[in-house]
Design goal:
This protein is of the alpha+beta class and 89 residues long. The protein has one domain: Orthogonal Bundle (Arc Repressor Mutant, subunit A). The chain contains 4 helices and 3 strands. It has helices spanning 7-16, 22-28, 33-45, 65-80; strands spanning 19-20, 49-53, 59-63. Helix 1 (7-16) packs across helix 4. The model has no long low-confidence stretch (mean pLDDT 88).
């Protein structure tokens, strides 16, 4: 049975990138463009990432301190729960 990632796992995958453009995020986090738009909006609203203009029209998204704290907390929770690929949950 294939493991379907939770929203929290998707968010963690996005935050782990540190700074990246839309295409890199989409492929690295293995998501559709529709999902990408939804998650970027959510993360921006919560100030977990910032939108950074690095050229015209080049934009990247950078994890904030708040985002790094959340990522650390998510990793700690997953570790405590011993959540690993292939687990029965």
């Amino acid at each position: 049975m294939e493991h379907r990632r939770s929203s929290i796992e998707v968010i963690a995958d996005m935050l782990r990138l540190g700074e990246a453009g839309k295409t890199e995020i989409m492929y690295s986090a293995n998501m559709s463009y529709f999902q990408l738009q939804k998650y970027l909006k959510f993360l921006l609203e919560l100030r977990l990432i910032d939108k950074v203009t690095v050229g015209n029209p080049v934009v990247t998204y950078r994890v904030t301190r708040k985002g790094l704290r959340l990522l650390r907390d998510i990793d700690n929770i997953l570790e405590v729960l011993e959540f690993k690929e292939g687990s029965n949950l």
